[in-house]
Design a protein that fits this description.
The complex is a heterodimer of chains A (78) and B (255). Chain A is mainly alpha-helical. Chain A has 2 helices and 1 strand, in the order ααβ. Classes of the chains: A mainly alpha (78), B alpha+beta (255).
């Protein structure tokens, strides 16, 4: 292999690496932007206390009928 | 005192997804009984109606499980009404924010009953309905539609409203408009009176006579009877080629 050929291969490899770096930087930026846009700000996030059992114990509260029908597992409120 | 409640929902014959959500919860408390029964109709035509209706139902269901028991000892209907309005407004702001930041359109109606012992409160935004079925059938919610408002203002006759192309257009629902003004009513439960909450898909092709006759207290004496009547009517609705999702819930107190 001549020096010229080695240089061409090295240049091609360098270009490949640079293109990859640019491409993945762009993808990461886009993903970050999407994450920011799909997470509601804290001031409108609802915080619900945990622990149905605890609530039940407090007020002599016993669920009799408990049916909740929804058609997605996706959440807006985390 | 006993509460009887049940619900049913169906995707219908045309849609690829059921955008409606429904919740029926009853509980024994230290002072008697309590219930939450609600229907949310995720907006047809809007891209994520099922997400909107699910979030609203989950919010109320979680409240009933975790916060409501602590509120019961000092239960006061004025405070409860204020809290329900605040919750609906918070949910509206959250859905509007989510939609605008994700280029999505998502919205839902929110209509339900909260009962504590022999008293109840209805809350309502949109065009789902609550009917009271006693010795007659009466609609106890107002449709928040453009045509209904026009009829009330005397700008349109009820007959014109039935065929107006804007008859399904809502003047308010959760997740679309910047502000919502939920309709709240307080009342007292009575024996042999059934409350029916339904999405528009359930009632479009059924007559008031059919609703009254099929969902009377005699024909829905037990939860099992309620479920079978609701399923029967849903099948009738589908046979009549209603294109929307179909959701209904029934609630009755035996005092």
């Amino acid at each position: 292999m001549t020096t010229g050929e080695i240089l061409v291969i090295a240049a091609a490899a360098a270009v490949f690496v640079i293109i990859n770096i640019i491409m993945w930087t762009m993808i990461a930026k886009k993903e970050k932007k999407i994450r920011e846009r799909t997470t509601p700000p804290h001031d409108i996030n609802e915080t619900l206390p945990d622990g149905v059992m605890e609530a039940a114990a407090v007020a002599g509260f016993k669920l009799i009928e408990n049916t909740v029908i929804i058609h997605t597992n996706e959440r807006i409120i985390p | 005192m006993k509460y009887i409640a049940a619900c049913d929902t169906d995707i219908g014959i045309s849609k690829k997804i059921n955008q409606d959500s429904v919740c029926v919860k009853t509980a024994k408390t230290s002072t008697g009984m309590a219930a939450l029964v609600m229907v949310c109709d995720g907006m047809g035509g809007l891209s994520r109606g099922e997400l909107a209706s699910a979030e609203v139902v989950r919010s109320f269901a979680d409240w009933f499980d975790t916060e409501f028991p602590f509120e019961l000892p000092d239960w006061d209907w004025q405070t409860a009404a204020h809290n329900v309005i605040s919750r609906l407004r918070r949910l509206n702001a959250m859905l509007v924010h989510y939609g605008s930041h994700n280029n999505l359109q998502l919205g839902t109606t929110a209509t339900g009953i909260i009962a504590v012992n022999s008293e109840y409160m209805t809350f309502h935004v949109g065009d789902s309905r609550i009917y009271k079925i006693s010795d007659k059938l009466s609609q106890i919610t107002d449709d928040h539609t453009y045509v209904n408002r026009a009829v009330k203002m005397g700008k349109m006759t009820p007959e014109e409203a039935l065929v107006d192309p804007r008859r399904n257009a809502l003047v308010q629902c959760i997740g679309v408009t910047g502000e919502v003004a939920p309709e709240i009513r307080l009342g007292t439960l009575e024996n042999d009176v059934t409350y029916m909450i339904c999405s528009d898909g359930f009632r479009h092709v059924l007559t008031e006579k059919e609703l009254f006759e099929e969902l009377s207290a005699e024909k829905t004496a037990t939860k099992k009877h309620m479920q079978s009547k609701m399923r029967e009517l849903i099948e009738t609705v589908k046979n009549r080629e209603e294109s929307d999702n179909i959701t209904v819930a029934l609630f009755r107190a035996e005092l």
